[in-house]
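Summary of Year 1 activities. Much of the first year was spent building the evaluation harness for sequence design. The harness presents a backbone, in tokenized form, and records the residue chosen at every position. We chose the following record to illustrate the format because it has been used consistently in internal testing since the harness was completed.
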């Protein structure tokens, strides 16, 4: 019986290893590069300077195709920006509205407005992007396995056609018109590389390398996906401290009540 169990375990391990090798060969399983993010861990907080730069990348590059519908412009003040600074950032943005007669108009954005959508509806977004609407980025970091690591890897994982090996071109049926990304499932992605070195000029003078922009926009999108994270962590720490104090008090009461039995 024991020999049968051992043989079965060996066979299962061999099958699992073989399946993993097949999946990797097929390009369906690629390990994401792990990065250290400021918001990781029980005491992690958002890097507000990085998130502010990330908003600049989103506004100047990503906002042309991707919406951020769950955020209002006033939420940017939670990144350390003042009322006046946010108003300056949105002064050239116009949003759709209705006038007193119910007629559609466009007016300057207010702090209370949600982020402007790049397309009036999903059908229009799909029509402008080869039949597939770009996803909303409001909770993209929470929605994608790997979170911020996936966003960073995706943005930095594009490989030009002339850098691909003949084996990769054949295996994944890649043509010169395709966009090959190391970390995208299936590797062929509809979105062309959105970022490159010096794609934006940072207001704070930070050198805008591809890696820096990718890291900053991932930080911003992580905040956008969970802007209340820091409050949640602070509440958790307070609850743990309270429970520890309560446990100590209960132990002291127990010792006092049963003192005559010791």
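For this record, the design step produced the sequence shown next.
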């Amino acid at each position: 019986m024991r020999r049968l169990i051992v043989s079965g375990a060996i066979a299962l391990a061999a099958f699992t290893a073989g399946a993993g090798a097949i999946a990797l060969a097929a390009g369906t399983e690629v390990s994401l590069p792990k990065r250290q993010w400021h918001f990781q861990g029980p005491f992690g907080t958002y890097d507000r300077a990085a998130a502010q730069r990330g908003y600049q990348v989103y506004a100047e590059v990503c906002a042309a195709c991707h919406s951020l519908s769950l955020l209002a412009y006033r939420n940017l003040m939670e990144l350390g920006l003042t009322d006046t600074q946010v108003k300056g950032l949105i002064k050239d943005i116009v949003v759709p509205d209705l006038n007193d007669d119910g007629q559609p108009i466009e007016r300057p954005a207010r702090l209370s407005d949600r982020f402007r959508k790049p397309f009036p509806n999903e059908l229009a977004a799909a029509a402008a992007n080869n039949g597939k609407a770009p996803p909303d980025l409001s909770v993209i970091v929470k929605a994608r396995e790997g979170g911020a690591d996936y966003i960073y890897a995706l943005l930095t994982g594009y490989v030009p056609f002339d850098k691909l090996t003949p084996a990769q071109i054949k295996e994944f049926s890649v043509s010169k018109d395709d966009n090959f990304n190391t970390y995208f499932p299936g590797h062929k992605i509809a979105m062309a590389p959105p970022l490159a070195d010096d794609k934006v000029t940072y207001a704070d003078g930070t050198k805008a390398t591809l890696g820096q922009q990718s890291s900053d926009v991932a930080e911003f999108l992580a905040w956008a996906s969970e802007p209340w994270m820091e409050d949640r962590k602070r509440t958790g720490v307070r609850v743990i401290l309270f429970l520890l104090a309560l446990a100590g008090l209960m132990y002291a009461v127990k010792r006092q009540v049963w003192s005559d039995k010791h």
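Residues 47 and 188 are 32 Å apart (CA to CA). Quantitative recovery figures across the full test set are reported in Table 2.
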